[in-house]
Amino acid sequence: MDRAQKIWSLGKAKPLEPPKPRGRFVQLSPSKENLRVLLQPTAKERLLPLLKASPSQEHLAAKLSEQFRGDGEKLSWQEVASILSHHGLLAAFEEQERHALRKALLKHRCSLDRLSKAWNSSPDMLKKHIAKLGLKDDFAQLRKHFATQILDSRNINQQLRVLAQPGYVRDLGIQSSLPKQVSLRLKSLIDKLPPELDTPEKQLEELVQNHRLDKNLLLKLVLPLKLFEPPLTP
Question: What pTM does this model have?
Answer without folding.
Answer: 0.73
